[in-house]
């Protein structure tokens, strides 16, 4: 019998052998349904590849309106929200997430302290600038899982 007590488990995950943190990730962004080539497509693919670390079920919404419906109907554990949507204000979606006790992580290609401050003051759980480096996606997923785990503890 092997000793499992020293097995490394990423932050936000259970120490129970064979148990992984279950996360329902809703991705909302204008380019969210583009598979592979888009930022969100690459993030979704990374989530599939990291299933040995955590159990992430992804759902995507290519508009703010459909994202709001999924927040209420699909009941995600955490939302990854594009800061700039073409159909409705991302701040409206952030408020919807907050009203439903769902942590929202905001992301943008623009590295702006003003954007980060606006969303964190509006109740965002975190702000993660987008990256073009595919090697960063696993670290981003860890942060998203941690946000979801911390929300469960505080709510």
Written description of the protein model:
This protein is of the alpha/beta class. The protein has one domain (22-154): Rossmann fold, CATH 3.40.50.2300. It is 37% helix and 18% strand. It is built from five helices and five strands; from the N terminus they run βαβαβαβαβα. The chain has helices spanning 39-49, 64-73, 90-99, 113-121, 137-154; strands at residues 22-28, 55-61, 78-82, 104-108, 126-129. A five-stranded parallel sheet has the order 2-1-3-4-5, sandwiched between helices. α1 (39-49) crosses α5 and α2 runs parallel beside α3 (90-99). The protein is globular and about 35 Å long. The model is unreliable at 1-17 (pLDDT under 50).
- Radius of gyration, CA atoms, in whole angstroms: 15 Å
Most strands sheet:
5 strands, parallel
Any idea what the shape is? globular
Largest sheet strand order? 2-1-3-4-5
How many helical elements? 5
Portion in helices: 25-40%
